[in-house]
Amino acid sequence: QVQLVESGGGLVQPGGSLRLSCVVSGFSLDYYSIGWFRQAPGKEREGVSCISSSDSSNDGPTYYADSVNGRFTISRHNAKNTVYLQLNNLQPEAAAVYYCAALWGPVTPAQAMHILLGSSGMAYWGKGTLVSVSS
Predict the structure, then answer these.
(1) Tens of pLDDT along the chain (135 residues)?
(2) Residues with Cβ within 8 Å of residue 132, at least 6 apart in sequence
């Protein structure tokens, strides 16, 4: 049974950090690209970051939405079946439910842009973890 389980969300003050984890089961992470998305109340889902599958190292090419570039970092540890999203310098506008999702195979830069624009075509989704930012 395919599962993606997110964790690591919580309440932080502005400027704080969190590390989200996405643990996958039921398939080999080696062959899948992973995307992180978020959805705030009353807003549409948006792509945050994605990391392509790679046949060599753990970290395939990475891509970020402009709104988070430089503050968020995505990484993967295939042996642990886990993808991480490090969130730094969190601001109130980052508060949302964060989801990870999987897509078979590597993604090209053009495909990554489609993912980050929300036209994802992702095959499998987790149920999300809530990130709250408040003083």
Answers:
(1) 999 999 999 999 999 999 999 999 999 888 999 999 999 999 999 999 999 997 665 678 999 999 998 899 999 998 899 999 999 999 999 999 999 999 999 999 999 999 998 767 899 999 999 999 999
(2) 9, 10, 11, 12, 95
